[in-house]
Amino acid sequence: MAQTQVSQADAQAERAPLGPGVLQFIEHLRVARRLAPRTVAMYTDALHWLQASAAEEGIALDQAQAYHIRRWMAQLRERGLGPRSIAIALAAWRGLYRHWGRELKVTHNPVDGLRPPKAPKPLPKALSVDQAMALADQPVPTENPVLAARDHAIVELLYGCGLRVGELVGLDASPGPHAAGWIDAAEGTAHVLGKGSKRRSVPVGGAALKALAAWLALRGEMAAADEPALFVTRTGTRLSSSQVRTRLAAIGQAAGLPTGVHPHMLRHSYASHLLQSSGDLRGVQELLGHASISTTQIYTKLDFQHLAKVYDAAHPRAKKKKEPS
Question: What is the pTM of this model?
């Protein structure tokens, strides 16, 4: 299970052979359902643990009850398996009893209704302020000045406005009855269509407006007169989200950033840096277009991480004293 197999967690040198009914289920997974070999291997490990747990308590597998499954699931946690590995085990066990139910070998599925422990949500990946500045200042890796202007404007808008990549590529060069979004340079405002078809307006900073003006001055060299899209490809069609991801990754690599840069990372960076500077959670929520404040609160954890690093680096009481020799 994710390299930490149940058999390894239990430190068993040898395992008892699986019973015929379990082997038949594994063959069903391999042949009828055509699961990937790795998935079959993880399910097999989980079924070995299930069989060993039942044998240890003297219980036939087809007689197991929900309280048995709960106890065996708890034992997986005691052996250090994480939520994802336990979820895989429960999926394997549930599948076995479901298969046996179809063959009338059991009258109920003791795993139904049981859920694995919740895995902690990973914090969003954000660039530091210095990294974001390095990315924005990085010359675009292309000799084509039109593409360079386009890509620079994309970076500035993603980081400067916290736009989702779908909102960015949905922008039109000018407002219109069918425009999903546009930028009012005079007002310094981006009007976008976000999740759930909700419209919002966000301020556009000076650096982004300057980059946008440079792109608009050259946009006509790639876009036809009747093309509404603000950002277009070499062939003059609307730029896609995947193309933006590819270009941004290349710029991040050229800037020497230690991690793969993607559009949502710039949105995370925008939110994190705003929160670090202002502490205004509600304001950041509105700028991001989050329906729930709980979605925005994840950035307070990033902010705390930042403050913790500052404390560790600067406060005299944070530094560990060397043990006396």
Answer: 0.58
